[in-house]
Amino acid sequence: MTTYRFRRLSRADFPLLAGWLAQPHVHRWWYHQSTPEAVEHDFGGGVDGTEPCEDLIVHRDGEPIGLLQRSRIADYPEEFAGLAAITTVPAGAVTIDYLIGDPERTGRGIGTEMIRAAVAETWEAYPDAATIIVAVVAANTASWRALERAGLRRVAVGDLEPDNPADSPLHYIYRIDRGDIEA
C-alpha cells in the first residue's frame, strides 16, 4: 500500500524545491522564480512562521515527490474576498495547493492519491475545519481532474487573479466537506 507523509518545509529543502519550481510543468502553473533568493522570498516566511500558511514536503513511500501548501482562507483577506464573491466560504475553511516535482510522476494518478491523502491529513491537522476549498485556473485541466477524481466537487466558476499573467482569470472552485465521502 502506498503511504503519504507530509512534513514542514525547511530551508534545507530549498534546493529541491527550486529544482521542482524550475520544471516546465510546475513553472507553468506555479509561476515562481527558482533562484535561491526567490525561493527564500516566497517560502521563507512559511518556514519562519511569519506567514499563516503551511508549506509541506510530500513524501510518497518515503521519497519526496512534491509540495503541499495549506492555509485557512480567512488568513488571506484578499483571497477570502475573491472566493466569497464567487461562492460561500464557511468559517474556518482551508485551502490547499500542490505540485508534483518530477515530470515522470505526472499523469499516473499520483496527484489524485496525493490530494486524497492531503484531504485526510487536513481533517486531522484542522479538527475544527469543516470545508476545504480549492480554486484552480480553468485551463489547468490536469489539476481540476485530479481534484474531481479525489472526491472534490466543482461548486462555482468565476474570475480570480491568476498566478500566471498568461492565464485567463477564469477559475473553477472545488469543495469537499468533512463528512462527504472521504477523499
TrEMBL record:
The keyword Glycoprotein does not apply. Keywords: Acyltransferase, Antibiotic resistance, Transferase. GO terms for molecular function: acyltransferase activity. PROSITE patterns: GNAT (PS51186). InterPro entries: Acyl_CoA_acyltransferase, GNAT_dom. Residues 4-179 form the N-acetyltransferase domain. It comes from the Bacteria. It is an enzyme of class 2 (transferase). Its EC number is 2.3.1.-. The keyword Transcription does not apply. PANTHER family: LYSINE N-ACYLTRANSFERASE C17G9.06C-RELATED (PTHR31438). This is GNAT family N-acetyltransferase. It comes from Pseudonocardia hispaniensis. The lineage of its organism: Bacteria, Bacillati, Actinomycetota, Actinomycetes, Pseudonocardiales.
